[in-house]
């Protein structure tokens, strides 16, 4: 695979990521709005679960069209419009063929690839994006490896009183997975680690500062993280942030999700406590804040402590907690379903407005052997028309394509008209279907009057004969 092909696929990947990231921003705003409006009305579990809509939006590469989609009314750029600036990527978009040059050898591809195609501003942004992804991924892996290397030799807890307390907590929460308990002088806060082989780490000083009941609260909290599979979720979020590192709103959303995750975890623990023990759980949280403020978090851990501002929110939730706070309500389900319908779907194409292409010039049509274009042979100065409405990206001359016009259309399509005798449009002009764009000729690398015509989808040539309709059929 050569550099031009790498650039093409890199641009494609960045186009999709950018498009999806922009749409995800609207979902974040809606989630924050719904959370604010339902602050007191919707259950704690809902405030965390609603963030999974954002994860779905960022992970799933496709979505169905819907007339109810939010993006029917919002001017969000489509994938095709984002790609407009780099549709001339070196993907084989302009492939001269034997049919186009019947009496001459095919020119080397480097002679007709546009220089700005390989080094366009969008290609530069794509390169910056992938470099950022690589740097952040390497940094995350190195940080995780270094952290695990520091704690791998920490001792396993042997105190039978503590182990008995852990066993009772597991039995109370219905956890059957073996979860070792380890003590560390390097940990700054209690934490659960491991996606498949979970372990609970406790700071070595914790036994000197907490009584048996407070330790039980911490163990219940870490077991709740395991029961809810929070470490796996945090790992997915970390990978999504690496890919979307350029979007600050997603970093903020991830931070809010981690906060709501802790509150949902607290709510689950409280469902296993007696009513008289609920205030004591809040006291344990305050004490942990005093002992281990602002613990460092990584994707493979789920802890107990958090910032002072967040602890205040958690204490308020605990003081108002009712058993139903961890159950789904009808209103919560309706809001989640509505958000999903509005934001996890794409704008619906208007019925009867699907993009169609008409034959750009009358004449004898001959397909190229690779079916990536057609040659239409006719007399010199035969009118050549736009196959579909769009915007002229280029209208100029080069030694290979001669006078040629490139038009960008909706949904990532573009059409290319080569070897024109005369150009009738300029770059930047908006054209309608059937509008005159030039006169058939034999300029550039050509041996006779003809039009070389191509249709591209997201930069990739496709067989025009599968898309062309006659004027009569169209009507």
From TrEMBL:
UniProt-listed SUPFAM superfamilies: Duplicated hybrid motif
Keyword terms, alphabetized: Membrane, Transmembrane, Transmembrane helix
A Pfam family per the record: Peptidase_M56
Source species, domain of life: Bacteria
Domain M23ase beta-sheet core: 371-464
KW Ligase (keyword) present: no
Domain Peptidase M56: 18-318
Regions that span the bilayer: 13-34, 119-142, 231-254, 325-344
Statement: the UniProt record of this protein carries the keyword ATP-binding: no
Protein name: Bla regulator protein blaR1
Species: Paenibacillus uliginis N3/975
């Amino acid at each position: 695979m050569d550099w031009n092909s790498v650039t093409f696929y890199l641009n494609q990947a960045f186009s999709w990521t950018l498009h999806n990231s922009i749409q995800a921003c609207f979902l974040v705003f809606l989630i924050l709005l719904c959370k604010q409006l339902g602050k007191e009305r919707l259950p704690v579990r809902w405030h965390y679960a609603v963030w999974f809509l954002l994860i779905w939006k960022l992970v799933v590469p496709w979505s169905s069209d819907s007339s109810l989609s939010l993006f029917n009314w919002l001017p969000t750029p489509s994938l095709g419009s984002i790609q407009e600036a780099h549709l001339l990527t070196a993907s084989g978009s302009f492939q001269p063929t034997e049919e186009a040059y019947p009496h001459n050898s095919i020119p080397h591809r480097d002679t007709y690839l546009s220089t700005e195609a390989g080094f366009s501003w969008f290609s530069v942004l794509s390169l910056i994006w992938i470099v950022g992804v690589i740097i952040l991924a390497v940094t995350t892996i190195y940080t995780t490896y270094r952290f695990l290397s520091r704690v791998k030799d920490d001792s396993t807890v042997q105190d039978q009183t503590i182990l008995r307390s852990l066993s009772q907590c597991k039995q109370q929460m219905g956890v059957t997975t073996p979860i070792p308990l380890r003590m560390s002088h390097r940990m700054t806060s209690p934490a659960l680690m491991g996606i498949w082989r979970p372990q609970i780490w406790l700071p070595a000083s914790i036994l000197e500062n907490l009584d048996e009941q407070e330790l039980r609260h911490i163990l219940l909290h870490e077991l709740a993280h395991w029961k809810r599979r929070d470490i796996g979720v945090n790992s997915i979020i970390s990978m999504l942030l690496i890919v979307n590192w350029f979007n600050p709103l997603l970093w903020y959303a991830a931070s809010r999700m981690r906060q709501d995750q802790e509150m949902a975890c607290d709510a689950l623990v409280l469902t296993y406590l007696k009513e008289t023990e609920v205030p004591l759980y809040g006291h344990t949280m305050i004490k942990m804040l005093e002992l281990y403020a602002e613990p460092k978090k990584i994707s493979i851990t789920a802890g107990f402590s958090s910032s002072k501002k967040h602890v205040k929110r958690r204490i308020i939730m605990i003081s108002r907690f009712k058993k139903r706070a961890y159950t789904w309500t009808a209103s919560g389900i309706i809001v989640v379903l509505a958000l999903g319908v509005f934001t996890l779907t794409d704008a619906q194409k208007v019925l009867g407005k699907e993009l169609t292409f008409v034959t750009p010039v009358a004449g004898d049509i001959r397909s190229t052997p690779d079916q990536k274009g057609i040659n239409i042979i006719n007399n010199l100065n035969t009118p050549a028309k736009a196959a579909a409405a769009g915007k002229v990206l280029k209208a100029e001359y080069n030694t290979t394509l001669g006078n040629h016009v490139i038009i960008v259309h909706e949904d990532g399509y573009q059409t290319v008209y080569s070897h024109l005798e005369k150009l009738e449009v300029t770059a930047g002009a908006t054209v309608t279907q059937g509008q005159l764009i030039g006169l058939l000729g034999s300029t550039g690398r050509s041996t006779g009057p003809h039009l070389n015509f191509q249709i591209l989808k997201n930069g990739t040539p496709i067989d025009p004969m599968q898309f062309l309709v006659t004027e009569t059929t169209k009507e």
